[in-house]
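Limitations
The C-alpha cells in this dataset are predictions for the assembled complex, not deposited experimental models. Users should treat interface geometry with appropriate caution, especially where small molecules or nucleic acid strands are included. An illustrative entry is reproduced here so readers can see what is and is not provided.
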Amino acid sequence: MTMTPPSGEMIVQKIGNGTVIDHVTAGRGLLCLRILNIPSTTQFVLASNVSSKRMRRKDIIKIEDKFLSKKEFDRLALVAPRATINIIRDGKVAEKRVVELPKTIRGVISCNNPACVAFPRNERFLEPRFTVETDDPLLIKCDFCDHELSRKDVDELL
Amino acid sequence: MGFAGSDFISINDFSKADLEHVFKVADRMLPLARKGSSICKNKVLATLFYEPSTRTRLSFQTAMLRLGGRRIGFSSGAESSSMKGETIADTVRTIEQYSDIIVIRHPSEGAARVAADYASIPVINAGDGSHQHPTQTVLDLYTILKEKGKIKGLNVGLYGDLKYGRTVHSLLGTLGLFGANVFCVSPQGLEMPVHFVKEFKEKHGGDLVETSSLDTVLPQLDVLYATRIQKERFPDEKEFLKVKGTYSLDSFALSRAKDDLVLLHPLPRVDEISYELDADPRSRFFKQVFYGVPTRMALIALLLGKVK
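Predicted assembly:
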C-alpha cells in the first residue's frame, strides 16, 4: 500500500471505503490502532512521523472498510485530540470531522483511584464519567471522586 | 440557589452566599435543637450508613426528631442488602419508596454522588471515604462563626493528619472562601495534599503556611482544629505505625496559645488532645458536636423545602 518515490516523500495509497485518521500527534498512531481494536484481518496503513505543514510531524492512519462508532470516536478523542477524520466512500471523501474532546467523557475509561466508587469492581453497572479540565496538557477529573488523571494516566488506562 | 429538592453532596457545589444562608437558618434552628418543633412533621429521613459513625448518624437522627419527623435506616453495610451484592443505585431507589430524604455514608469515594444520580429525593453526603464530608464542614464553620463571631481574617491552624482527614480537606477550601488565614501543621508524611494547597492559593489567594512545628505558629492562632490519625485510611499498617502517637496536645503545649483560642476537633479523638484539656475553657469540641444538630436541622428543612 505504500511506496517511496525518488524524492524520498512517502506516498500512501488511497482507500476505496473506510476511514482516514489524519493529524494524529506524531508517535501516537500505534496507540490509536490499539484503542480501536482493529482485527488482524483488516487492511490498514500507519504512516508515522510524516511531514506536516500544520504540525511539523504527524501520524496518519488509513483503515479499509472501517467506520468509527460514537464510542470509538470518543476513545480517539482522548488519544488524538484535534485529529481529522475523513470518511471515504467510493474513493471520495464523503464526510470530514475534526476530533474534539467533549466536556464530559462517559464510559471510555475507568477511574484509576482504587477507593473510587467508579473503580472497576466497586459499583457494578456504573458508567465512569470525567470532566475535561484542560485538553493541552490533558487533565480530566473523575465526576465521582474528583481524582485527576493526566495524559500519562489516561494512556495507561486505554 | 434554591435548596428545595436539591442534594448536598460536595461543599464545592455551594457558594459563600449559599453557606451563609444555611448559617442563618441554623441560627433559627438553635433554640429548636433542644426544645423541638414540627417543621418536618410526617417526613421520614433514611440514614444509610455503610460505615460506623456515632456523631454524624445520631446528630442527623436527632436533627430529624427535633424537626418533628421520623427516621429509618441501617448503621453498617452488614445490615443492608449490599452484602448480597446490591448496588448503591438499587438500594437508594428502594429506600426512596419509604422516605423523603436520604443521608448516606459509604467507604467508596463518590458513592453519595451515585446515590444522588439515581434517587429522586434529596440526598445528603455524610462522608464518602477520604473524599468529602460536607455537613461536617458546615458545622465546623458554623462553630467558628458562633464561637469567634467571624471567620474573615482569623488565623486558623489545621493540625494533625492532613493527608487522610477528609474534614480538613473540605474545611481548607471553605476557610479560604470566607477569608481566613490557614496554618497547616502536620507531622512529616501526613501533610495536606499538594492539590488542595494549590487550589487554596489559586482560588482564594489567602495566606497559607505549612509547617511541622506547632510551637512556632501556635501564639498567632485564633482557632486550632486538631484531627485524629485516620488509621482506617492508611494503605498498610506499617505506614500507620510510623506516625502513630507523633503528636498530641496538653496543657503545657497550649500554654503558649492565646487566651481566647478556640480548640476544635471533629472527634472521635484518640490521643491528639489530652483529657486534662477538657476543663480548659478554650476547648469547644463538645459544643462543636452540639452545633451539628442545628446545622443539620437547617439542611434537612431546606432540602425538604420546609424553610426558605
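Some entries come with short summary sentences. For this one: Residues 2-98 of chain A form a domain with the Alpha-Beta Plaits fold (CATH 3.30.70.140).
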